[in-house]
Design a protein that fits this description.
This protein has 2 helices and 23 strands. 4% of the residues lie in helices and 40% in strands. It folds into 2 domains: 181 residues, no CATH class; 103 residues, Immunoglobulin-like (Sandwich), CATH 2.60.40. Strand 15 and strand 16 form a beta hairpin. The strands form 4 sheets. Strands 15, 16, 17, 18, 19, 20, 21, 22 and 23 form a 9-stranded mixed β-sheet that branches.
């Protein structure tokens, strides 16, 4: 294991000498959230060489524990440093050995501050989050894991919050975001990946973020036909942007072209056809009629899209 800086007084003091000109990390531009541990139970780390294919693969991971989520550019970022916790004894502040972490706050403004963005943040509120930042210099800013890898900065559980601020005269709509860095994080281990190691520029990463699909059942008949709409997260109350172009093979419950009957615990073949009149409206025909009250689980697995499992109870 490589050396990782520990917060301790034991041993010889560390020397602060620098090997020539030291590069500087840039200001944070946008956050990339992910789970602390992946589906294998090991730390999610950032590869030191990143091309477009590697990024798109991480953004489209089917297991949310392996997936990265890129949020829009931050405005008015405030990241005050932690303070040493002290107790006054006879008028002298004595360090307790712990730090008081300060809230990290930032805003998404204008079209980036859409109210629907709150749902994306809220969906991460119960996860063990870490965050890596892309900087204005094209770097990735996070923590050194001690093995020469970059990992995310641990977010204290339960502190990630996003609140919508409606526009008033002279102001834009905003999404106000805040969180606390975990109290056990040691800022001495902050590190970054240089822009030269990132083949696909970070400034373009948000454009590769998959679109979230919101499904809406319209009808189901004869235990064989299901009609539903697929909309994006954004749009007006009666005009969410439709998700077009989903095909039979994009319906996938482990096997392309199949759904899962949760009542019988069996997979069921299906055929999907998009309406030529109403974009984003689909008719699914099951390969065989099922039974009334059966629950059919529908999953869309397609690059560029993400959707939570959609369940339909057959009439």
């Amino acid at each position: 294991m490589e050396f990782q800086i520990a917060c301790e007084c034991a041993g010889s003091p560390l020397n602060p000498g620098q090997p020539g000109c030291m590069p500087l990390v840039g200001r944070d531009k946008f956050p990339i959230f992910m789970d602390e541990f992946n589906s294998l139970g090991v730390l999610n780390i950032i590869p030191t060489v990143l091309d477009e294919a590697a990024l798109v693969a991480k953004l489209n991971e089917t297991d949310p524990r392996d997936r990265w989520t890129v949020f829009p550019e931050m405005k008015n970022l405030a990241a005050p440093p932690a303070e040493n916790e002290t107790e006054d004894i006879d008028g002298v502040p004595n360090p307790t050995g712990e730090e008081i972490k300060q809230p990290i706050t930032f805003e998404h403004t204008g079209s980036d501050g859409n109210p629907a963005l709150k749902a994306a943040y809220d969906s991460r509120s119960c996860r063990d989050n870490v965050v890596v930042f892309a900087t204005f210099k094209g770097q990735l800013n996070g923590m050194n894991d001690g093995n020469g890898n970059l990992r995310g900065i641990k977010v204290q559980n339960g502190t990630l919050s996003a609140q919508y601020a409606a526009p008033v005269k002279g102001t834009l709509q905003k999404m106000m975001v805040s969180y606390l860095v975990d109290e056990l994080e040691n800022e001495a281990n902050r590190d970054y990946i240089p822009a030269a190691s990132i083949a696909f520029p970070t400034k373009s990463w948000f454009t590769k973020q998959p679109l979230e699909i919101l499904p809406l059942e319209i009808s189901n008949t004869g235990q064989v036909t299901i009609v539903f709409k697929l909309n994006s997260l954004y749009g007006e109350v009666d005009g969410k942007s439709p998700i077009e172009g989903i095909v039979t093979a994009d319906i996938n419950d482990g096997v392309a072209g199949f759904v899962f009957n949760e009542t019988t615990a069996l997979t069921v073949a299906e055929t999907l056809v998009e309406s030529t009149v109403t974009p984003g409206t689909y008719t699914m025909t099951l390969g065989a009629a099922q039974t009334a009250a059966d629950v059919i689980k529908i999953d869309v697995v397609a690059t560029g899209y993400a959707m939570r499992s959609f369940r339909v109870t057959l009439g």
